[in-house]
Amino acid sequence: MVFSSHLFLFYFLPAALILYYATPRRGKHLVLTLVSYVFYGWANPLFVVLMFASTVIDYLAGLAQTGQFHRSAWSRPVPRLPPLPERPCTTGPWYNWLLVPRIISWVRQQDPLRTRGQKLAVVVTVANNLALLGFFKYFNFGVENYNALMAALGFDQAVWANFLRITLPLGISFYTFQSMSYAIDVYRGEARAIRNFIDFACYVAMFPQLVAGPIVRFQDIADQLEQRSYTAEKFARGAAFICLGLAKKVLLANSVGKVADEAFNAASVGCADAWLGAVAYAFQIYFDFSAYSDMAIGLGLLTGFMFAKNFDSPYLSESITEFWRRWHLSLSTWLRDNLYYPLGGNRAGKGRTYANLAMVMLLGGLWHGAAWNFVIWGGIHGAMLIVERLRGKHSLYERLPRPVKIGLTFTIVLFAWVFFRAPDLPSALRYCGSMLALNDPGPLAGLVGGVILQPYYLLGILICAIVAWAAPQTWDFTRRITWPKFAWIVAVFWAAVIVLATQQYNPFIYFIF
To answer: Rounded to whole angstroms, how far apart are CA atoms 302 and 304?
Structure first.
């Protein structure tokens, strides 16, 4: 079930809200959890079983960190662990540059504030979530690369026949990261473990952000799980977020997505058409994902929760460093706090800083999908972060006018998006060659231009550009809803609903991640 569907908007959501508000305060989390399980299991009920098993393991590991398995734990609050002290980062042996040894070293550090059992508990829950993510998301990828390597080396007899094909559960990349944030936040003393299992299951399974984020950090929502307010202003703002998010998805992302599909699926494409297709995809993925984030934030507000902003006009960035302070904020902050800092951050010399940046961005790319294209996408961003860091306090583009800096940054992002969108690595390289006019487009390339150079599509791209670079963000636009704003919100909502009736199934792009 997707947010941009009549089934969700006019049947599931009203029924869920009626049940939620008709339930007494003590039962709201149970209702929200059950409703979320129905939402998540709509496509495949077995996915619910997997998520529930993971939830049980993470919940017990959280209690184990605070020694709350005895009966009295159910009648008193779980205490907050004392925060871990800041420790100076040392370079250490060469293998500490690798991810797994570094994280294990961080967990196993001889700190008197943590017992061996507490350290074991956080290792178990992190290992469990990484194992789930690794198996379901990367098993097929690993088998395919192993077989390709064996075939290239001439060991055809060692090829592993694909008798097992793994289906990727929806949202597993997001709820595993959320569960790990719970374990890590409790271990660090930044949050208190949840005593009530229903509360924790609600945190993991909340349908507003379950399938495609944003990644809700436990420390950001822990207090809201205990107590939150329900006001007419909050409900109205949540409805506005949903209406504007639906309009972004249906009226903007879906329209320019057709241009991107035609350009990237063509056997050959001309230089100008390749650029137009890349720009169309840049707008498609931004408005698609920010639309889902807006709707998730809005749904959270309808149930009393306030989620953090996930996008901050990323295409206004003047550098790639700034881009990652504006794009997918929940993921970038998660990677910073739970990967970049444990690896040492920028506290152990320039060489270590550059290695950490490269490691984080490569793994961030791989998190998005099990393909070398995503690794290269992360590598491009990592390389640019390193290049910009080499300049120190001086910006790489400091002498250029702001519009030029924004344009150069957007161009780099465009080339990176090619690897994100293309079906495979050869296709991505071929498409980049077309953008640089290095390929002979052939006689059939003109057919692509005849399809995408339509006034309707060009107008859609122009509107996307105006919204991306000049319009206020949904977060700011909905702070105070006046009557003119209300009229605009209602108008674009019903326009999106009418257009939605003419479209076929249109899942959000990040559903596949």
So the answer is: 6
Rounded to 10 degrees, what is the CA torsion of 344, 347, 348, 352?
Answer: 60
| Tokens linked to 292 | 């889902």
Residue 71 has pLDDT above 50, yes or no: no
Q: How far is residue 68's CA from residue 173's CA, in Å, rounded to a whole number?
A: 29
Residue 334 has a pLDDT of 87
* CA separation for the pair 43, 208 (Å, rounded): 16
Over the chain, what is the mean pLDDT? 83
The tokens for 446 are 């003109």
Model confidence pLDDT, tens digit, residues 253-309: 998 999 999 999 888 888 899 999 999 999 999 999 999 999 999 999 999 999 989
Give the closest residue to 91 by CA, choosing from 347, 402, 327.
347
**CA–CA distance, 292 with 2 (Å, rounded to integer):** 10
Radius of gyration of the chain measured on its C-alpha atoms? 24
Catalytic residues: 368
DSSP string, 259-325: HHHHHHHSSS--HHHHHHHHHHHHHHHHHHHHHHHHHHHHHHHHTT--PPP--S-GGG-SSHHHHTT
The pLDDT, as a whole number, for residue 95 is 42
Could you tell me the CA-to-CA distances from 233 to 243, 247, 427, 450 in Å, in that order?
15, 21, 49, 48
202 closest CA partner among 73, 69, 35, 43:
35
Tracing tokens 């959280």 back to the chain, one arrives at 62
Residue 139's φ and ψ, nearest 5 degrees, are: -65, -50
Query: Do residues 287 and 377 lie in contact, with contact meaning Cβ atoms separated by under 8 Å?
Result: no
pLDDT band at 110 (very low <50, low <70, confident <90, very high): very low
Contact status, residue 319 vs residue 383, Cβ threshold 8 Å: no
pLDDT at residue 151 greater than cutoff 50? yes
- DSSP3 helix / strand / coil % (the chain, rounded to 5): 70, 0, 30
CB 50 within 8 A of CB 129: no
- Report domain extents, the chain: 44-205
User: What is the C-alpha separation between 359 and 362, in angstroms, rounded?
Assistant: 5
69-84 in b/e form (b: 16+ CB < 10 A) is: eeeeeeeeebeebeee
| Choice between 505 and 53, residue whose per-residue pLDDT is larger | 53
CB 213 within 8 A of CB 304: no
